[in-house]
């Protein structure tokens, strides 16, 4: 394969496209190189020119306002077809360029020297060139410097490409993490659904029973006192409020809030979380001690998920335990709010403690093992922490989050 056949040109263009650099904004790293080339070579114009299929496009230029010119009039198109620097001392005396519109008209090229930009795969993607409107030449030192600067252009292009690849990889990882979070959330909703149905069906039975009793008494013209009727209606009202609270908590948790961050009170999120977990905690003694009106600024949905994950971990730890206890306490200092969730279960083995926040690690079969790792990741992304305070005996997880300013 030579620099003159169609196959070489096709591969060259494909590699140029892979850099995703054409038609991008000016960047200081490239502008510094053209400025240095202009100074070293003593020319008013210096350009980083990239050869597309039908045009040459300028990533950086000193002394030239144009951003591109047709490739058919490009000096650089000739420069990429040879090894080393192509130098034209006086374009008016060179039959290849004497009639070129860039020679006859502005910028009135007389002197040109171009060093090819050779990719690691050996393709000439363009040139670093210097131009003058007067005839001239470069010394050997200037030529060597121009070649070194051309290598720096390629190095910057490679670095830029790697950064783009890293950004794309990071975005992909974030998307995958979001999928895992959503999967974990769906799993949590699935685990809670049965219990929530129970929490709702029992109160509905009470409501239906009380309403039926009142209806029968009215039908049979059983005269009831105003106090008796009000008492029955109070029971119905309280039961409706109970159902409403459960549904409100579930609606808040199920809502897709995206990245929305709002101010809220930590105790409200704790209350919602415990309400959603109530059916799984009916045989657990729960002690709650939270600082009142402790204001935080978070994504409510995601922090609720964190709290549910940690409480769920405690519930599972107490599965085969006799006297089941969970304590939830919240307090704050000048900068942070803290939420401790403690259970009196058997504790976490030393061998498991170091892996408790590792994705997909679980001591339980058929578990995703991403709850605590996702909780920790979310908190750390939002200047918070999730800590395991005690590894054996009663286990305490501490959630640390910034207070609202």
Which keywords apply here?
10 helices, Heat Shock Protein 90, 405 residues, five-stranded mixed β-sheet, six-stranded antiparallel β-sheet, 2 domains, 46% helix, elongated, Beta-Lactamase
Sequence of secondary-structure elements: HHEEEHEHEEHHEHEEHEEHHEE
Number of domains: 2
**Inertia-based shape:** elongated
What's the average pLDDT?
Answer: 82
The biggest beta sheet reads: 6 strands, antiparallel
Main CATH class of the largest domain: Alpha Beta
**Rg measurement, Å:** 36 Å
What structural class results from the helix and strand content? alpha+beta
Q: Please name the CATH architecture of the largest domain.
A: 2-Layer Sandwich
Q: State the share of residues found in helices, binned by percent.
A: 40-55%
SS strand fraction: 15-25%
Given the structure, what is the number of helices? 10
CATH superfamily of the largest domain: GAF domain
Q: Oligomerization state of this entry?
A: single chain
* β-strand number: 13
Unreliable stretches (pLDDT < 50, length at least 5) are 365-370
Distance between the termini: 66 Å
């Amino acid at each position: 394969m030579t620099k003159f056949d169609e196959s070489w040109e096709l591969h060259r263009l494909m590699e140029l496209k892979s850099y995703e650099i054409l038609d991008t904004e000016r960047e200081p790293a490239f502008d510094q190189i053209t400025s240095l080339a202009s100074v070293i070579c003593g020319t008013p114009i210096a350009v980083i020119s990239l050869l597309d299929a039908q045009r040459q496009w300028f990533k950086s230029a000193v002394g030239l306002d144009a951003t591109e010119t047709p490739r058919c009039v490009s000096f650089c198109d000739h420069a990429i077809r040879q090894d080393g620097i192509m130098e034209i001392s006086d374009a008016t005396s060179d039959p290849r360029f004497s009639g070129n519109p860039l020679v006859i008209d502005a910028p009135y090229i007389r002197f040109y020297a171009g060093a090819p930009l050779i990719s690691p795969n050996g393709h000439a993607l363009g040139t670093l060139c210097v131009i003058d409107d007067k005839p001239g030449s470069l010394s050997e030192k200037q030529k060597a410097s121009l070649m070194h600067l051309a290598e720096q252009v390629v190095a910057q292009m490679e670095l830029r490409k790697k950064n783009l690849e890293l950004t794309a990889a990071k975005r992909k990882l974030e998307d995958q993490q979001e999928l895992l979070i959503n999967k974990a959330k769906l799993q949590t909703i699935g685990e809670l659904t049965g219990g929530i149905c129970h929490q709702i069906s029992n109160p509905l039975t009470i409501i239906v029973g009380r309403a039926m009793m009142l209806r029968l008494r009215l039908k049979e013209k059983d005269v009831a006192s105003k106090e008796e009727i009000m008492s029955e209606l109070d029971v119905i009202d309280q039961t409706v409020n109970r159902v409403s609270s459960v549904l409100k908590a579930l609606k808040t948790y199920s809502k897709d809030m995206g990245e929305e961050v709002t101010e809220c009170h930590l105790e409200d999120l704790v209350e919602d979380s415990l309400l959603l977990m109530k059916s799984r905690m009916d045989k657990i003694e729960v002690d709650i001690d939270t600082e009142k009106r402790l204001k935080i600024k978070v994504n409510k949905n995601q922090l609720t998920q964190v709290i549910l994950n940690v409480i769920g971990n405690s519930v599972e730890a107490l599965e085969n335990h006799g006297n089941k206890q969970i304590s939830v306490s919240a307090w704050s200092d000048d900068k942070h709010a803290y939420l401790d969730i403690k259970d009196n279960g058997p504790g976490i083995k030393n061998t498991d403690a170091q892996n408790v926040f590792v994705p997909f690690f679980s001591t339980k079969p058929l578990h995703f093992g991403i709850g605590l790792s996702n909780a920790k990741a979310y908190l750390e992304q939002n200047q918070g922490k999730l800590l395991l305070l005690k590894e054996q005996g009663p286990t305490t997880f501490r959630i640390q989050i910034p207070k609202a300013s």
